[in-house]
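Page 47, continued from p. 46.
Same chain as before, 604 aa.
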Amino acid sequence: MQGYKAPQKDALFVMNELLGFDKHYAEHGFDDASPDMVEAIFSEAAKFTENVLAPINASGDEEGCVWKDGVVTTPAGFKEAYQQYVDGGWPSMTQPEEFGGQALPYSLGSIIAEWFSGANHSWAMYPGLSHGCMETLKAHGSEEQKKQYLTNLVSGKWTGTMCLTESHCGSDLGMLKTKAVPNGDGSYSITGTKIFISAGEHDFSENIVHIVIARLPDAPSGTKGISLFVVPKFNAGPNGEKLERNAVACGSIEHKMGIKASATCVINFDGAKGYLIGTENRGLNCMFTFMNMARIGTGLEGLAATEAAFQGALSYAKDRLQFRSVSGVKNPSGPADPIIHHPDVRRMLLTQKALREGERAMALYCMKLVDVGLYSDDEKAKQVGEGKLALLTPILKAFLTETAQETTSYGMQVYGGHGFIKEWGMEQLARDTRICTMYEGTTGIQAIDLLARKVAGSNGELLKLFIQEIKEYCLSIRDKSQFNAWSNSINKHCDEWAQITGDILQRAAKNPEELGAASVDYLMYSGYVTVGYFWLKMAVTAQEKIDAGDYSNSVGDEAFYQAKLHTAKFYFDRLLTRTRSLVSSMDSGADNLMSMDQEMFYLG
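Result:
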């Protein structure tokens, strides 16, 4: 497989020419995130991504992690790559200066995180979990806890995890059994076992800080009785000193389909000392800080896989000679033509390209909303931004990871039989990415969150807020007649989106199973329309650049912007039309799913 290349140009196009990140950063006081500085940071991130992470991706998959007597050893080169990551100051990039951070915007770090994941998914998961740990402590931890943990986490000296799942409860966290018993000195004794803990044990850092949910002895049942605790592998002194070993141990690591170089651990807490974060029985509310960060990060993993699959497939399709093009010989000096000249290969590549670029625009838009929520002094802007982000987070997580299953499959398919062979890297991408639809809440969980909690739970107000933005944009470009067909299509989809929502909620008032029956199709419909909106905006921006005719201060040249227009046409002609089957499926109702008795599922 060709070496991974960080998609700097496409990221800069979306940031500065589509979404105005240069002005966005200036408005929020990020003087150190000037356009020149962003490009310099991108250049260094690309070097680390391409020269350090990508070369150990395949070997890490082949070697995997090794567990022995509670100790996890990561593959060759992984620990050294992490030290280079720390030495480069990458862990501290978006963190506050008071804890040793560089105070750069969240969105900037997230863009680079996509590249890390695209180059080496397994490796990127280790520092990725630390960010959620830091955000949880910053948002909900006491001043004492921040002093104890954040400086070491920000520097990368320590790493963090999230410990939610138990073997019997999966996503139904109200069933958790892990106990927290007060010790009488302000600490708690944590006892229980957590599974599927990414980066739960490894050899990167000298301490691992676990964020753990558990239940107090007198807690109410269900999710209302969940509390949140910080439980370090080694206890910490008041100024972050590493003290004695805590009663936390890795019982085993999972043997998995993919991400084999990421340690997915069973973690045993045997009366470990922990400290309450926030207030008693409000742990799930605090945990959503971590979970929402993780969901956004998982969506970026889907985008990263789509990017990597597209890069590999495109390189191969340009070089691989098979058959002659039906429209005439394209490679007269060779025995056959490159397969990129065959229509079906074009179909797969353009699907990857259209999703790659449309989803990056959607993701960076969401990153911008995160910035507004974190840094804006305008309370109304924060409220609007957080409302849109609440709606889009489950779409971002699920749509980008579901479509990554398609794009990584196409990565294998373009290679033909070679795609099934390890040396090309495509089958590893498909294996590694398969988990993304499952962890941090499956696609079904995200779909219920979208339709039941975000849409129905807000009486449709969150959806109206986003639809209003789309419709206002469509109205603003009415004078650009060459885009009327696409603009009208998006506008009609928004009307349909609102109508479908009303129809489902009306049916659900009589039969609550209608929500679950429609939810995944509803989420995918929402994803295609949202990405369509961003393709419309990208097409208009590209045309404006072409019409101006001066590319001296632009990210790309004429070919770059013409490619945007070609890809937009493909998206509107071939991908947005997928909404038709989704509408039909939603309209069919819940009866075709729920009416058959479970004993009839298998009678052969």
